[in-house]
Design brief:
With 197 residues, this protein is α+β, with helices and mostly antiparallel strands. The strands form three sheets. Strands 2-1-10-8-9 form a five-stranded mixed β-sheet, with helices on both faces. A three-stranded antiparallel β-sheet has the order 4-3-5, sandwiched between helices. It is globular, with a radius of gyration of 19 Å. A hairpin with a 2-residue loop joins strand 6 and strand 7. It has two domains: 157 residues, ATPase, nucleotide binding domain (Nucleotidyltransferase, domain 5, 2-Layer Sandwich), CATH 3.30.420; 38 residues, no CATH class.
Length: 197
């Protein structure tokens, strides 16, 4: 079932911060699953090892594209796993969670991220388009009540943002090739675009 929509996106870096404990978890946004049965076999850094050492019948996917939800169901499984790993399954109430997403994402994309977190086990969800470190620093000073409420903060970012750029360029070149546009013409268009910025 996963294989029908399979595409390998550049994974995001996911951090889970807990008040008074700091960052308790750091993982890649990767899910490895059996391509025939759809069963998830590993998540995060463990799944990353399968990218480096591929196994027959195992696919590795990132449900996030540049930090934005691209595969809803797999994203729910990813964050459910990460929250359980960070806090254990014995939770008596759904925690309030703040999620730091990439700057500039649309309201629809923010709602998708919020819905994913609810399905993954979060209670109230707050979406912020600023880095995790900035959120923690600003909220602790400017909005202490909210800071106390959202004791769990999930950061979705990229430590090597040039990898996202390479992914975008690869998509552009693939599209250009399909449309019969040469790489030289793409380069020319990029130079023209640069002059207008």
């Amino acid at each position: 079932m996963f294989e029908e929509n399979f595409r390998m996106y550049e994974p995001a870096d996911i951090l889970i911060y807990v008040q008074d404990r700091g960052v308790v978890l750091k993982e890649k946004s990767l899910v490895a699953y059996h391509k025939e049965f759809g069963k998830i076999v590993s998540v995060g850094t463990e799944a990353e090892r399968l990218v480096e050492n591929p196994q027959e019948n195992i696919l590795v996917s990132s449900p996030l594209r540049q930090g934005i939800v691209a595969d809803y169901m797999v994203a729910v499984k990813l964050f459910s796993y990460l929250l359980n790993k960070a806090f254990g399954k014995k939770t008596f109430r759904k925690p309030a969670v703040a999620v730091c997403v990439p700057k500039g994402i649309s309201e629809v994309e923010k709602r998708a991220a919020e819905d994913v977190m609810h399905q993954a086990g979060a209670g109230e969800v707050m979406i912020a388009d600023i880095p995790l470190e900035q959120f923690v620093e600003e909220m602790s000073i400017k909005s202490p009540k909210l800071y106390q409420k959202y004791k769990i903060v999930i950061g979705i970012a990229k430590e090597e943002p040039e990898n996202y750029l390479r992914e975008q360029l690869s998509c552009i070149l693939d599209y250009a090739a399909q449309a019969g546009i040469s790489a030289d013409r793409v380069e020319e268009l990029l130079r023209q675009e640069k002059q207008t910025v």
